[in-house]
Write a structure and sequence with these properties.
There is one protein chain. The longest helix has 17 residues. Helix 1 packs antiparallel against helix 2. Helix content is 35%, strand content 14%. It folds into two domains: 53 residues, no CATH class; 213 residues, Rossmann fold (3-Layer(aba) Sandwich), CATH 3.40.50. The strands form two sheets. The chain has an eight-stranded mixed beta sheet, with helices on both faces. Strands 2-3 form a two-stranded antiparallel sheet. By secondary structure, it is of the alpha/beta class. It binds S-adenosylmethionine. The site of S-adenosylmethionine has 20 residues, from helix 7. S-adenosylmethionine binds next to helix 7.
Length: 314
Amino acid sequence: MTRSGDVSPTTIHQAKLDAMRRVRSHGGVPTFFDALVLAVPEHAEDEASRNLRRRLLTTLRSAGRGDEDPLARLARTPGTDLPGYTRSCSQGTGTPTVWQGRTLFKSVFDLGLYQQLLQRVRPATVIEIGSGSGGSALWFRSMGTAIGSPCRVVSVDLTPPPDADDDGVTFLRGDTAALADTLPPDVRGTWERPWLVVEDAHIHVPAVLGFFDPLLRPGDCLVVEDSLAKQETLRDFLTAGTHAAYMADSALLDLYGVNATSAVNSVWHVTDRVGRPDLGAGADGVAPAYRPAATVLPAAGRRSAVRPTGPAAR
Ligand SMILES: C[S@@+](CC[C@H](N)C(=O)[O-])C[C@H]1O[C@@H](n2cnc3c(N)ncnc32)[C@H](O)[C@@H]1O
């Protein structure tokens, strides 16, 4: 950036070279985004050009962070690039999306993002909290099969959809306030790893996070949907310290624009980066499987909030 807050012509020039490299690697086909990068004027001084340059660079740098500390991510990107009306239309207008005869309450952005996420995580078990009409559980199962990584799907709801059980898909009656009753060790003990846990009930979110946190292992993934209004809850959860060590998937969260998803800042991979040895055993009596990272943990053994740094912090 220049002193006036504009993006320097050199930086834009470099972004264009990178875009040309991407286009070449895509067999010469530019994405809409790459076409925009290639078209943006490097020197024009009008406000629209300056804003476009800033916006393009912000998106590229944000997505370019890859996996990052989720607290840093929460501080850095508090909002979404999705315009309100686009977001409102993105689950369907006259009708929601339908999958195998059942409505599916995923935005078109999330459908695309989950397809990418499933290919990265390749979950053996998808645990969905909040079944809706059952369409999303069936869709997860279909997508697992489509990518050659069939997954079992377990979906929990206060009122499970009737007659929706399918091959590999189980609907369970349960309350987010008391998941241990619905998912005791003998039930969840049969689930193969990796797990993809999707919170999509929006009630008792801290209880849901608190239930799964000690059960998650490296390679698992946690998604909290419709989280624009849950940012404070997510921050509180992370700040209090967690059993699992999470990394936010910024490449995915920003794939279609910064936080162009219902899961605003909340697609988290479980890593073996840092554990919480002071929290002891998890709900299954199993200690967190992470190497204690004494050099990273402060004296009290709590994970600390990482403050955003660098040119993309805003
Ligand atoms: C947004 S819908 C789920 C949509 C579905 N996952 C999809 O993508 O199509 C939210 C669901 O959460 C369920 N729900 C609400 N409160 C709940 C609670 N306390 N415990 C369990 N499920 C609850 C509702 O019955 C509803 O089906």
